[in-house]
Amino acid sequence: PRKPFVIQVCTYASRTDAERLAEKMRAGQLPAFVEPIDRTNGKTFYPVFLGRFQTFQEAQAKLKEFKGKPASRDFQDSFIRTL
After folding, report:
1. What burial class does residue 19 get, using C-beta atoms within 10 Å of its C-beta: 0-12 exposed, 13-18 middle, 19+ buried?
2. Using one digit for the tens of pLDDT, what is the confidence trace for 20-31?
3. How many Cβ atoms from other residues are within 10 Å of residue 59's Cβ?
4. Is 10 helix (H, G, I), strand (E, B) or coil?
5. Which helix (H) or strand (E) holds 17?
6. What secondary structure, in 3-state letters, does 28-62 show?
């Protein structure tokens, strides 16, 4: 099965900080979630993602929409990737 496309908004070293941002984004009607990533050095990071999109084009349209919202002001380097 194909992996979904997501928009990576930012990454935190603290799960609490990541969850706080995701909750704030969900309150603003954005489909945000946190997915922990374990690095080979033993550290865990907590990226905040938006959505799960079936196509790159769908993710691209949502990224453009997101960058037009005030919530994206601090996250202009958000990008599309797969999970």
Report:
1. middle
2. 999 999 999 999
3. 22
4. strand
5. helix 15-27
6. CCCCEEECCEECCCCCEEEEEEEEEECCHHHHHHH
Question: Which DSSP letter does residue 3 get?
Answer: P
Give the span between the Cα atoms of 67 and 69, in whole angstroms: 5
Is the CB of residue 19 less than 8 Å from the CB of residue 34? yes
Q: What type of residue is 63?
A: L
> 15 pLDDT band (50/70/90 cuts)?
very high
Supply 76's token pair: 């202009």
SS3 label, residue 7: strand
